[in-house]
Write a structure and sequence with these properties.
With 247 residues, the protein is an alpha/beta fold. 46% of the residues lie in helices and 15% in strands. The protein has a 7-stranded parallel beta sheet with strand order 3-2-1-4-5-6-7, sandwiched between helices. The longest helix has 29 residues, at 103-131. The radius of gyration is 17 Å and the shape is globular.
Length: 247
């Protein structure tokens, strides 16, 4: 297993794509910190990690709060002594057309999706720098590259995450810390399952592979970027979208 002995922190990993990422990293040998706003919801992810013979730790954290993020990282360092992998998956949406978008909906999405990513990266970099080794993967989005009606706040936050990724990659390459992003397309989740048949058909018509992605498609991409096989890749945005956007 390519990640044996590694300690991975995965934010927003109580369910969905985050849970798939945590499980896949565990399959590759990593012990996993299951970080989410509600630690009680992390139990299922923890159980899946432990079923694979790996250690799991649940930490309740609001990534948009620097004090909570710093406390989480300090706790992991105290109990497990190192952090090798950070996956910034936590994110929210507050959709609406721009002229109708409330200021608080703009601010809350930027606070979690962008500032939360900044806080988590900033918190782990001292440890990774001392280790002279680390992998950071930020979850961006196809809409950060192409935009999407009704998601000005979300698209802006994910486009900014891509810019942050490239900058930190340049700053910490000399410390052997790679920083990359995975940009999912439309993934088969509870949200897309609620789409009407007509809307889903229109969506699929834009995807050359003619199917929605699975959470495992994103998890596999993240796992690759965390492995030694991706040791010469940094500042890259890996688009996983079935060909909907070929950037």
């Amino acid at each position: 297993m390519s990640l044996t002995g590694k300690i991975a922190v995965v934010t927003g990993s109580a369910q969905g794509i985050g849970q798939a990422i945590a499980t896949t990293l565990a399959q590759e040998g990593a012990d996993v910190v299951v970080a989410d706003l509600d630690a009680d919801r992390c139990k299922e992810t923890m159980a899946r990690v432990e079923e694979l013979g790996r250690k799991a730790m649940a930490v309740s954290v609001n990534v948009g709060d620097w004090t909570q993020v710093k406390s989480m990282v300090d706790q992991v360092q105290k109990e497990w002594e190192r952090i090798d992998i950070l996956v910034n998956n936590a994110g929210i949406t507050r959709d609406g057309l721009l002229l109708r978008m409330k200021e608080e909906d703009w601010q809350s999405v930027l606070q979690v999706n962008l500032t939360g990513t900044f806080y988590c990266v900033k918190a782990v970099l001292p440890t990774m720098s001392r280790q002279r080794n680390g992998r950071i993967v930020n979850i961006a989005s196809i809409v950060g590259a192409i935009g999407n009606i009704g998601q000005a706040n979300y698209a802006a936050s994910k486009a900014a995450v891509i810019g942050l990724t490239k900058t930190v990659a340049r700053e910490y390459a000399s410390r052997n810390v790679t920083v990359n992003a995975v940009a999912p397309g439309f993934i088969d989740t509870a949200m897309t399952q609620d789409l009407s048949p007509e809307t889903k058909e229109a969506l699929l018509s834009q995807i050359p592979l003619k199917r929605l992605g699975q959470a495992s498609d994103i998890a596999d991409a993240v796992s690759f970027l965390c492995s030694e096989k991706a040791g010469y890749i940094t500042g890259h945005v890996l688009h996983v979208n079935g060909g909907m956007h070929m950037g």
